[in-house]
Each structure stands twice: as structure tokens, then as C-alpha cells.
Design goal:
Helix content is 17%, strand content 21%. It is of the alpha+beta class. The protein is built from three helices and six strands.
């Protein structure tokens, strides 16, 4: 049996699936909260807001921004404690331990020549050895040190890359190995 509702215009009883009231001709729209796609969008928005709040808010105060390190191990100057959160020295650093240089040295810009030397399967340490400097992770997924820990880094801006306006390069690592690389506009 069909569910009966009241027309919002004339208050006549109509079947809920009716698009137009047979009594007054008014449209019978379903409220937006009853549509499945509205709930899907709401969940995606809430998840995006929840995950964006964890964006580099836990930076290490003992990190020297001018250090050119090629590993993710950093030692706390006061305690001597190793703060490495990765599985090994080849694992990309978690955002809380990443070196964040304000500007790459002029001779250490990422060029197309350096980019072409980088191959999938290389470790984070090997890639940084070619590029010559580190940047903070752009995206992190999973738990640092786990098999599925995934980190993405983006090099962009005239202080980090050599190329045309808007030039940038992205590198994605999973389980300590480069799985994907992309670039646009490098020279």
C-alpha cells in the first residue's frame, strides 16, 4: 500500500510518490535530506573537514629549517631521543618530523634533469639524494611505519623548482618506496 502524505499547498491527501498534486497542480518535492546523494555529499564534506584539521599542526620545534638532511631520523637536542617514526631510514618522514626549509638553495632546485633520474621503486632517501632537499609532506594516509603508510610530497614555486610559471612535481611513496611521480612545466 502506498504511503499517503498531505499536499503542502492545498492540504489534500496524495500518494507520496506523486510528483504533482492532482487536486491543485502543485509540485510535490521530496525534502533534500531524503535523497541518498545528499547524504553522500554530507559525509564526504564532514570527512574532508575532519581530516584537514590534522594539517602540519604538530611540527617539531627542534627542527632546524636550514638543515639539509636525507633521512627522517632526528635527534632531540635535549634528551638524545630518536624521534624516527618510520619503519626504517628509507621511509618518508611523518609530517611531525619533516624538515621544512623556507627556501631551497638556489643550486638545489628540482629540474627536469633531476626529475628524469628519479625512478619508481626508489627509496625516499635515494630520491632526496637526487633532489638535494626535503619539503613537508602534502598528504599522509595510514599509520607511519605500517605497510600501507602512504605519503605524498609536492615541490612547487620558484624557490623549489626550475621551470615555467606553475611548474611543480609530486612524488608518492608507499611502504618506503616511490610508487608514483608526476610533473608539469619543469625545465
Amino acid at each position: 500500500m502506498a504511503k499517503l502524505i498531505r499536499c503542502k499547498t492545498c492540504n489534500a491527501e496524495i500518494i507520496s510518490s506523486t510528483k504533482i498534486c492532482p487536486n491543485c497542480g502543485a509540485k510535490n518535492k521530496q525534502p533534500i535530506y531524503t535523497k541518498w546523494w545528499a547524504w553522500t555529499i554530507a559525509v564526504v564534506v564532514v570527512l574532508a573537514i575532519a581530516t584537514s584539521g590534522n594539517n602540519n599542526s604538530n611540527t617539531n620545534p627542534n627542527t632546524n629549517p636550514n638543515t639539509n638532511s636525507s633521512t627522517n631520523s632526528s635527534t632531540n637536542a635535549n634528551t638524545g631521543a630518536n624521534t624516527n617514526t618510520g619503519a626504517n631510514a628509507n621511509t618518508p618522514p611523518a609530517s611531525s618530523n619533516a624538515q621544512q626549509p623556507a627556501q631551497a638553495p638556489k643550486s638545489n632546485k628540482l629540474t627536469l634533469e633531476k626529475y628524469n633520474k628519479i625512478q619508481t621503486g626508489m627509496t625516499y632517501k635515494e630520491v632526496i639524494g637526487i633532489i638535494g632537499f626535503e619539503v613537508a609532506p602534502e598528504v599522509e594516509m595510514g599509520e607511519a611505519g605500517s605497510e600501507f603508510y602512504t605519503v605524498s610530497f609536492r615541490y612547487m614555486g620558484s624557490d623549489q623548482v626550475s621551470g615555467s610559471l606553475g611548474a611543480n612535481a609530486s612524488f608518492m611513496y608507499q611502504n618506503g618506496k616511490l610508487t608514483m611521480k608526476s610533473q608539469i612545466g619543469l625545465k
